[in-house]
Amino acid sequence: MKKRVLITGITGMVGSHLADFILENTDWEIWGMARWRSPLDNISHLVERINKKDRINIINGDLRDTLSMSHVVEASTPDYVFHLAAQSYPKTSFESPIDTLDTNIQGTERLLAALRRYTPEAVIHICASSEVFGRVPAEKLPINEECTFHPASPYAISKVGTDLVGRYYAEAYGMTVMTTRMFTHTGPRRGDVFAESTFAKQIAMIEKGSQEPVIKVGNLDSMRTWADVRDAVRAYHMLVTINPQPGAYYNIGGQFSCSVRDMLNTLISYSDVKNIRIEIDPDRMRPIDADLQVPDTTKFQKHTGWKPNITFEQTMQDLLGYWREKVQSNPHFICR
Predict the structure, then answer these.
(1) pLDDT digit string (tens) for 240-289?
(2) Residue 146 half-sphere exposure toward CB, CA atoms < 13 A
(3) In this structure, are residues 74 and 118 in contact, taking their beta carbons and an 8 Å threshold?
(4) Please, are residues 97 and 150 in contact by the beta-carbon 8 Å criterion?
(5) For residue 31, how many C-alpha atoms fall within 13 Å in the half-sphere facing its CB?
(6) Of 24, 33, 39, which is closest to residue 57 (Cα–Cα)?
(7) Cα–Cα dist 124/168, whole Å
(8) Cβ contacts of residue 40 below 8 Å, gap of 6+?
């Protein structure tokens, strides 16, 4: 009998790429959870298979609704779970902290409670975030799993809760729950509320002539280690299939580090427009920022053998190519 996998947040960047990976590399049957109003752009290429129920099904659910989560789990009865759904935008969390905390912490509790009731033997991946480490002093770099949490946004605080709820269920109830702290990962389908994606979108709009040659930016001085989303979903698959350890927690991330400024300059270098200017937009600045995000991924690599394959340059080129295609088909985007 084929294994069944539940992906919460299947319409997001990571969820949609994970669905692609599973369809290509396994024979598993996918149940993808999405809110009824979620845009389907990221899985539009899968619609024909969804309509035919060809190994992929969409089920409506909302992390903020307990009965909804019970319905999703009872209907899907998964062998594997990838909990990727979240309010995932740090800047938005400053404006909507209560919604962020409810969705990410209590939503994870609702999901795990339903899994405990209906499918306690499932292998479960809880996606926290490198943002839990927040403001890390330079002497603690690279960041390993035992680094102290110092969250720098309501989003980061919510992911601390997500992380701890996942480990609690493993320890208290003997469930195979594992938590990851994924560092910056990007690529095609990245939401335009994230720095590198809004930069790529703005460059594409400038090239199309639908925006003046000015890129609006926030803090360019933060250090990030970059990974490709396609490497990330491969890591997640290995997490649940290679000797999964109940209660384990891992840092996962890329190998190339640079400032947000250097990342922006890389994207600009791929454009034929040579008069692009940069302008600080105060609305894009966070009250505080996690400014040194450099991971130590030794623990996960030793356990699974995973290493990133896709270069930073390829990721940035693919991200820009993604936005060029979107802007070419519809140049009317809000500059955010």
Answers:
(1) 999 999 999 999 999 999 999 999 999 999 999 999 999 999 999 888 88
(2) 2
(3) yes
(4) no
(5) 20
(6) 33
(7) 13
(8) 11, 34, 47
Largest CA distance in the chain: 59
**What pLDDT, in 10s, does the model give residues 164-214?**
999 999 999 999 999 999 999 999 999 999 999 999 999 999 999 999 999
Please check whether residue 195 is in contact with residue 260, taking contact to mean a CB–CB distance below 8 angstroms.
yes
Quickly count: other Cβ atoms within 10 Å of residue 45's Cβ. 11
Architecture in CATH for domain 195-224+256-293+311-329: Alpha-Beta Complex (3.90)
In CATH, what is the architecture of 4-186+228-252?
A: 3-Layer(aba) Sandwich (3.40)
Q: Locate 24 and state its tokens.
A: 């290509």
| Helix (H/G/I), strand (E/B), else coil: 235 | helix
- The pTM assigned to this predicted structure is 0.97
Reference 75, options 54, 58, 62; nearest CA is: 58
Cβ contact 306:253 at 8 Å: no
pLDDT in tens, 285-336: 888 887 899 999 999 999 999 999 999 999 999 999 999 999 998 867 766 6
Q: What is the pLDDT of residue 290?
A: 78
Residue 109's H or E segment, with its range, is: helix 107-118
Residue 312, Cβ density class (10 Å: 0-12 exposed, 13-18 middle, ≥19 buried): buried
Question: Of 157, 165, 161, nearest to 113 (Cα)?
Answer: 165
Q: Which residues of 112-210 form beta strands (DSSP E)? A: 123-127, 176-182, 185-186
Q: Could you give the CA distance from residue 217 to residue 285 in angstroms, rounded to a whole number?
A: 8
User: Can you give the residue ranges of every domain in the chain?
Assistant: 4-186+228-252, 195-224+256-293+311-329
